[in-house]
Amino acid sequence: MQYVGASIAVQLFAVAGAGAVAWGRFSIAGIILIAWRRPAIPLSGAHATLKFLITPVLFGLALTTMNVVFYYAISFIHLGTAVALEFLGPVILAALTGKRWQERIGIVFALIGVFLISWIGIDLTNRQQLLGFVLALAAGIFWALYIWLGRKVSTQANGPDSLAIGFCAGAIAYLPLAVSGFGPILASWRLFALMVAVALLSSLAPFLLDITIFKHLRPSAYSLISSLFPATSLVVGLVLLHQTPSLGGLLGLACVSIAVALAAEHSS
């Protein structure tokens, strides 16, 4: 679902640019969540308000920065390749926080899968592909931070309320991205409908699900289960964007599937 939304977003890049589309994605999701949840922010004093907001805001900035950087990445390289590279962030987090031997083995398979999916077939002498490569790795760092902060948010506060606040914090922080690029989307009902679809499929539904899952899984287990994402994005890229995977991509998908099986079996 998340990468179906991303495939729609890629088609909007020609009209509004990657940054503006990323901003629209989490801004619309934030408006919907705020209207639904109406989070109660304590206003009894500046200290209490700051204490309540700081973790959700940091969580939201990690999440929205991940979105922005990732959207720029997929404007330069294939969707499946970008997701595979981005997954290095969660893999590193799993390596740092995981303690069971199944997780260690899963990390090895996940790294092999990511390597096969991404680095076989990328031409790092091409400036655009190199830029996409670097941006995808940067998105992975923010993805790891998102997982780590998400665990804190889900256990210390109301998860959906914190997500609503986080989306809005990101919308404010990245407002400059929308100033020059979002106009064409607002001027067309069809494009705006596609933008809403991106927000629902890529931000609202998956991140609400994440915030619930964070309560029940350790960061290492969640990180490994997330290794299904490169395989999913590879399939979506093939079907919707006609981005044909290489042999390395198919072999990497098999390795990623093994990593997912190991993580799912021992994720409690």
Q: Can you put this structure into words, describing what you see?
A:
The structure is a single chain. The protein is mainly α and 268 residues long. 82% of the residues lie in helices and 0% in strands. It has 14 helices and no strands. It has helices at 2-16, 18-37, 46-73, 79-86, 88-97, 101-118, 127-156, 159-173, 175-181, 183-186, 189-213, 219-225, 228-241, 247-265. The model has no long low-confidence stretch (mean pLDDT 80).
Relative strand content: under 5%
Structural class computed from helices and strand pairing: mainly alpha
Helix-strand topology string: HHHHHHHHHHHHHH
Residue runs with pLDDT of under 50 for 5 or more positions: none
Distance between the termini: 24 Å
- Can you count the helices? 14
* Rg from Cα: 18 Å
Shape call: globular
Care to count the β-strands? Answer: 0
Let me know the largest β-sheet. Answer: none
Summarize model confidence as the mean pLDDT: 80
Helix content: over 70%
Which tags fit this structure?
single chain; about 270 residues; mainly alpha; 14 helices; about 80% helix; about 0% strand; globular
